[in-house]
Write a structure and sequence with these properties.
Oligomer: single chain
Radius of gyration: 17 Å
Number of strands: 4
Strand content: 5-15%
Helix content: 40-55%
Largest sheet: 2 strands, parallel
Shape: globular
Structural class: mainly alpha
């Protein structure tokens, strides 16, 4: 069983397009494998899902995710570096008063990655036992 890891900054327009293309192109293969999905993006203090009113994953991609049947979908805080933004992006974050800085919770990310590693190890063991 092959393993893939792929991530896109799905809160950005470019990242959302990349994610959509990847999921659409690889939907059949992903539906046959264990898949975990995450989004990253909200900045500032507080729970990421609360900051986005329960949003965890791009709505446009949800039908594909429903067919792939991921084992989990999570939303992590992101990073917003003004130096990396163009004029329009800077103007937009000022208008919506989005906090800038690195708000990623590396402990939460590590915990989630450890859960995935444990699940993959279990799956690998089950496959080896079945052989």
């Amino acid at each position: 069983m092959g393993r893939w890891f792929w991530a896109a900054p799905s809160m950005s327009a470019a990242g959302a397009r990349e994610a959509a293309e990847f999921l659409e192109t690889n939907e059949a293969a992903l539906a046959q494998r264990p898949v975990w999905l995450f989004s990253s993006g909200p900045t500032g203090d507080g729970e990421p899902e609360e900051k986005l009113d329960g949003w965890r994953f791009p709505t446009k991609l949800q039908p594909i995710a429903d067919r792939i049947k991921p084992r989990d979908i999570v939303l992590f805080h992101g990073e917003l570096d003004e130096d990396e933004l163009n004029f329009l992006e800077k103007w937009t974050i000022k208008m919506v008063k989005a906090p800038t800085g690195d708000f990623r919770d590396w402990e939460a990310i590590d915990r989630w990655a450890s859960e995935i590693a444990a699940a993959l190890k279990e799956l690998s063991t089950a496959v080896n036992v079945a052989r």
